[in-house]
Amino acid sequence: MHSTLSLAPASPLAPRLSDLALLLVAVVWGTSYGVAKGALVFYPVLGFLAVRFLLTFALLLPALLRAPAPERRDALAAGLPLGALMLGIFLCETFGLALTQASNAAFLISLCVVFTPFAEWWLLRQRPGRAMFAFAAVSLLGAALLSGGFSGQWGWGDALMLAAAVLRAITVCQTTRLARRRNAPVLALTAVQAGVIGLGSLLLALALPGTLPPLPSLSDGSAFWLACVYLVLGCTVFAFVVQNWALRHSPPTRVGLLMGSEPAFGALFAVFWLGEQLSPTAWLGGALIVGAALWTMARRSPSPA
């Protein structure tokens, strides 16, 4: 029996499990920036993205091939456009981080939390409850305190991070929209998305001369390959599957807010694993982000009118 993206009746516990799973994804994704940064020491951005997502595609390909023909067609129909959106997200995020200050990047990507209610309203014609706008505002304030706000300078990196935040909000809503029309198994859908991202990154790398050097060896580049394994299994397979499943049980704004706790967990990882320091103001910002996520877990969003 396949786990699908159809909106089948769910158990009363499903929303709570969805919230907890999304918070765990936020924890895992919070660690991904430091891990990916270490991997990029060994290999350039496009090549790294190609390796990460083509490995993911190879791992999940059996699930796609085993799916019944109608479900496989649904996975392709939904996964191709969603994969294209996610390719844009990863390209904007990765290159944006290389071109802007970390504080600006953290603040801008967290704007996804604010953009999602408006994307939901625009794309799905569903106005979120007033409380969700308040939760989003608290989360955004926390992200600003955590990152230190803007430095007053605006560049290409800032624009790319802003674009990534917009694409994140749109992708959450588009996944929900397609879930209502398609009966795609979650693993098969994730395989298609990963294939689009991996192949797109590879084609871009091949099109740009000098951007695809030989892969690091297992002996000299063990840190690169360990990072790839962690990102593939934890930050890609686990995170993509959980997010696709959770969107069956939670409205897009709620999902966006819970995922918006990612900067706080990234800061904790930086402190305890990378040895970075945080100011009291940054700690307050992280507490507000996590508090907003826990607050939204304590109550369900009202159904759209």
TrEMBL record:
Domain EamA: 18-147, 156-296
Membrane topology designation: Multi-pass membrane protein
Annotated localization: Cell membrane
Gene3D superfamilies in alphabetical order: 1.10.3730.20
Entry annotated with the keyword RNA-binding: no
Cellular component, GO, one term: plasma membrane
Keyword field: Cell membrane, Membrane, Transmembrane, Transmembrane helix
Membrane-spanning intervals of the chain: 20-36, 42-65, 77-99, 105-124, 131-150, 156-174, 186-208, 223-243, 255-275, 281-298
Superkingdom, taxonomy of origin: Bacteria
Protein name: EamA family transporter
UniProt keyword Acyltransferase present: no
